[in-house]
Amino acid sequence: MPDSSSGLPDPESERLAWRLAVDAAGVGAWAWDLATMELRWDERLLELFGLTRETFGGTIEAFNESVHPDDREQVTEALTAAIETCGVYEAEYRIVLPDGELRWIFARGRALPGPDGSAARVLGAAYDTTAAQDGEARVRRVMEAMPSAFFHLDPEWRFTFLNAEARTLLGAVGSDLAGQSMWELFPQALGNHIEDHYRRAAATGTPVTFETYYPAPLDRWYEVHAWPTPDGLSVHFADITDSRKAQAVLDSARARAELLAGVTAVLTETLDTDTAVAELARLVVDARLADWSVVSLVDGGGPEGSGGWKRGLYDVAGWHVDADLRPAVQRYTELRIPALRDQAFLARALAEARPVLIDRDATERIAQVFEPGEARDLYLSLAPESAVIVPVRGRSRTVGVLSLFRSAERQPFSAEDVDVLAEVAGRAGLALDNARLYAEQRDLAAGLQRTLLTAPPQPPGVQIAVRYEPAAEAAQVGGDWYDAFLQRDGATVLAIGDVMGHDTEAAAAMGQLRNLLRGVAVTTSEGPAGVLHLVDEAMQTLLIDTTASAVLARLEDGPEGGTLLRWSNAGHPPPLVGRGGQVTALWPDQPEALLGIHPSLPRSDHGLPLRAGDTVLFYTDGLVERRGRDLDTGVEQLRAAYAELLPEVADLDELCDGLLGRLVPDRPDDDVALVLVRLG
C-alpha cells in the first residue's frame, strides 16, 4: 500500500512492481557467491534454461554445462574480467536445453566488492534473445547469399559486416575485415572518386550512386549505391559489366556507323581524287583510329617484277594528331615510296590485297624495310608502336593504300580496329573510284568539247572572247555551243545556241547543228534570219530530230558607215549590249520559234548600229536560269552584274571570268556558253 504521509510507494509495493515488470519482460535473476561458490537462480531463469530446482546443480560448473561448448570460453572470460575489476559483466551466448534445443541468452551483471575490496559476489539478470538472433541470422544468411556485394562501415570507417561477395570483391577472401579501417586496408581508394562519394554521403546524409571499375583479376564494372544509416554507411555493389559491354557494343556500332557515314559524306563532297584522299587522311586520325596516317594512290598496273609494285604508286596526303608533327609527316610522304625496299609491308598489302598488321615494335620492324636516308630517319622520329596497312579497293582493282600508325601510349590495333578500317577503306575505295571515273569522264568531256568549240577569230577592230563551262556532272557535255567565224565578204558571224538535252546525244546533235549552220552561213549571202530559215529546211531534209534555241548575229558595214549588228533570235535569251555605263537587253518584239520546229515559221532580222567600245554579250540559259527563278529575273540579275563589271574590267577574258564567278554556282546543273564581242 502507498505511504499516505509521503505519497510514495512503500518498499514492499516497490519490490512487487519491479518483480511484475521483470516477469513481464521475461527476465531471470541470478546471484553467485564467490566465497561459497553457490550460484542461485530464480524461477524465471530456471525456466529459461529448461531446468528445475532439482535438476540445476547450483554451481558455476552446472551453468557451464548448459552453455554451448563454442561459447563457454568467451562467457568465462567475461565473468573473470568482471570479478577481477569489480566491474560489469556482459555476454550473449547460446545454451543447449535438456531436449537439445538451442537458445540465445543475453546476460548482464556486476561484481560487488566485499569488506576487503575484492569481489565477493556477482549479481545479474538474463533474458532470452533467440527471436532477435534468429531474425538477425536470417538477415545475415540473406546478405551472405546475395549475388552482389554488401558491406557496412561504422562512423570511424571500420568494417562491421561484409558478405561473401564483398570479401571477394575487396580481395580479402579468408580474411576477417570486421573492425578494421577501410582507408588503412585500401589506401588506393583515398583521393579518388570512391572516397569523394563515400564522404559526401556520410557528410550530407544523402545516398549516392556511381560507377567504378575493379581491374584484373576481377576486371569488372560495378554500380555502387552508398547510403548513410544512424550507425554508419551501408554500401551495395551491383555488377554491371555485362550491361556495360552490351552498351559498349551499341556505342561501338553507332560510332562505326557514324564514322562510315562520315567517310562517305566527306569523300563524296568532292569528285577531285587528291582532295578526297587528303580528307581521308585527316578523317581517320580525327576519328582516333590512328595517331597519324598516310594515304597513297595507285595510278598504274599491279606488281610486275622486281620493284614493280611501286609502279604508279605515290603518297598523296598524310595527317598527324599533333599539329607540330604534320610537317614531318608531309615530308615523309614525299620521300617514302622511293625509299622502300621490295620487302616492305606496303608491297605485301598490295600483293595480297588484304590488311597487314604490325601489332608491336612497328618502329624497328618497318625501319628495316627502308633504305638508309631521310625517309627512314623521319620514320624513326615519328616512332610508332603499332601499324596497319590497308589496301583501298575500288570496283575491280586496288586504287590506293591506307597506312595507319599508333604510338606506344595507345593500345595496339585490334582485330576489331582492322575490321573497321577495312570497311572504311572499302567505302573510300568506291568514293575514290568514282572520283577517278569522274576525272576520266571530265577529261573526255573537255576534250570532246574542245574539238567541237574552236577558238574565235580576231578580225581587225573587233575583240572576241568565249567561254564554255560544263555542268558539274561528269561527261555531261550538253548541247550548249558557240561559234565565231568570217564570211567571204569579211563580215564577222557570231552564233550561240543550246540544243535541248544534257547527254552525249545532245552533244552529237549540237555538233551537227553547229557545223550545219556554219556551212550554210559561209555559202550564202543571206542575213541571219535567212540563214536560220535555211538551217530549218536542212534539219528537216537531213532528219535531224532535235530542237535548239539560237541567236545568229553578223557584224557588217552600216548603210551610213560604221558597224551594224544584225541578228535573229530563235527562242534564245536576249543578247546584252553595254554602252558606256548602260546595259540593254535586246528582247525581240515577238518571240520566234526554236530551230527544228518547222521551216515554214517566220524569221526576222533586227539591227543596231554599234560604236567603238560597245560590248555585246551572247550567252546560254545556264547563266540565268535556276530552279525556282524565271528567265526575266535571271536576265535582270545578269544585266545588273554586267553593268557593274563593265566599267571595272577592261579585258574581255577577265570580264567573262567575272560574270561566271558571280552567276554560276560551284556545282552547276547546266552548262554555260559565253561570247563577248567589243568594237575597237
The gist of it:
With 680 residues, the chain is of the alpha+beta class. The chain is 38% helix and 26% strand.
Write the layout of secondary structure elements.
Layout: H1 11-25, E1 27-33, E2 38-41, H2 43-49, H3 60-66, H4 72-85, E3 88-96, E4 102-113, E5 119-128, H5 130-145, E6 149-153, E7 159-162, H6 164-169, H7 182-185, H8 193-204, E8 208-214, E9 220-229, E10 232-239, H9 241-268, H10 273-286, E11 292-298, E12 313-320, H11 326-339, H12 345-352, E13 356-358, H13 362-367, H14 374-382, E14 386-393, E15 398-406, H15 415-452, E16 462-469, E17 480-486, E18 492-499, H16 504-522, H17 528-541, E19 548-557, E20 563-570, E21 576-579, E22 582-585, E23 606-610, E24 615-619, H18 631-645, H19 652-663, E25 672-679
Antiparallel strand pairs: 1-2, 1-5, 3-4, 4-5, 6-7, 6-10, 8-9, 9-10, 11-12, 11-15, 13-14, 14-15, 16-25, 17-18, 18-19, 19-20, 20-23, 21-22, 21-24, 24-25
Helix pairs in contact: 9-10, 9-15, 10-15, 11-14, 16-17, 18-19
Walk me through this protein's architecture.
This protein is α+β, with helices and mostly antiparallel strands and 680 residues long. It has a 5-stranded antiparallel sheet, sandwiched between helices. Strands 7-6-10-9-8 form a 5-stranded antiparallel sheet, sandwiched between helices. A hairpin with a 4-residue loop joins β14 and β15. The longest helix has 38 residues. The N terminus is likely disordered.
Round the Cα radius of gyration to an integer and report it.
51 Å
Sheet of most strands: 5 strands, antiparallel
Q: How are the strands ordered across the major sheet?
A: 2-1-5-4-3
Strand percentage lies at 25-35%
Number of strand elements: 25
N- to C-terminal distance: 145 Å
